[in-house]
Amino acid sequence: MPQMAPMYWLILLLIFSIMFMFIILINYFIYTPSNSNYSSTPMKKNHFIWKW
Q1: Within 13 Å of residue 18, how many CA atoms lie on the same side as its CB?
Q2: If DSSP states are collapsed to H, E and C, what string results for the chain?
Q3: ∠27-20-25 over CA atoms, to 5°?
Q4: pLDDT tens digit string along 7-47?
Q5: Does the structure show a pLDDT above 70 at 5?
Q6: How far apart are CA 6 and CA 11, in angstroms?
Q7: C-alpha torsion 46→47→48→52, nearest 10
């Protein structure tokens, strides 16, 4: 049983890191297409981060 705990935390950490990477990727893909409209992009990016 004691061997089960570290593996569980490792899997949990892996899942959280994957989720974090996905959020960064989504933010990157949202930020890049509207690069020309510089005035409204930071607001949109901030809004999306707060939504998550």
Answers
A1: 6
A2: CCCHHHHHHHHHHHHHHHHHHHHHHHHHHHHCCCCCCCCCHHHHHHHHHHHC
A3: 30
A4: 888 999 999 999 999 999 988 887 766 555 554 445 555 55
A5: yes
A6: 9
A7: 100
